[in-house]
């Protein structure tokens, strides 16, 4: 189920990359809608290259997704209470490893890309005093049941631009699920031990798997 949710997360947020001159990144809802066609077209166009070299998906993720994902903010939220008393250098190592892990994880899930249709919910009203907003979408993946999700975005106070950092599905956030998964090792072995695990996971080659 988590793999499915990550795939849909990628499918939406990966759609963020397009020329800055063409997209107003201060309007998160319109930004997501405007760039989706272009990014999905790239995935379709590069399928032969991807089939020949699945690791090319890491390049696509690096170039198209990561500039629009606030991986640092997500990593710090994931660490949560483990930040208290932590060495800043260790935290920076974790942030870097977490970024590498995200790139590899998203690339791996994209091997299951099947051109899902995306239906956006109503545009949310933006409160100028708030730095967090959500955009609801429905993933049409027939013959499977549709998937209803909400993507969380955070506004940079200085630039006014938005970046995605989390996804909510069935009441559970992606960050929260990873907090539960890694909290034990973070508590027992520390930040650097988890960072090393993430780095090793990120180094694994991308492989095609049978679709669920």
In summary, what is this structure?
The protein is α+β, with helices and mostly antiparallel strands and 212 residues long. It has helices at residues 2-13, 28-45, 47-52, 56-65, 71-79, 88-109, 174-189, 191-202; strands spanning 117-120, 132-140, 147-155, 162-169, 172-173. It is globular, with a radius of gyration of 17 Å.
Structure description:
It contains eight helices and five strands, in the order H-H-H-H-H-H-E-E-E-E-E-H-H. The protein is of the alpha+beta class. The chain has one domain (2-202): Nuclear Transport Factor 2, Chain: A. Strand 3 and strand 4 form a beta hairpin. The chain is globular, with a radius of gyration of 17 Å. The protein starts with a helix and ends in a 10-residue tail after the last helix. Keywords: Signal. InterPro entries: MlaC/ttg2D, Tgt2/MlaC_sf. Pfam families: MlaC. Residues 1-20 form the signal peptide. This is Phospholipid-binding protein MlaC.
Q: Judging by the overall fold, what is the CATH architecture?
A: Roll
CATH class: Alpha Beta
The percentage of residues in β strands lies in: 15-25%
Low-confidence segments, ≥5 residues, pLDDT <50? 15-21
Question: Could you say how many structural domains there are in total?
Answer: 1
What is CATH's topology name? Answer: Nuclear Transport Factor 2, Chain: A
For the secondary structure, the number of strands is 5
Report the C-alpha radius of gyration, rounded.
Answer: 17 Å
Question: From N to C, what is the helix and strand string?
Answer: HHHHHHEEEEEHH
In CATH, the homologous superfamily goes by the name: Tgt2/MlaC
In which order are the strands of the major sheet placed?
1-2-3-4-5
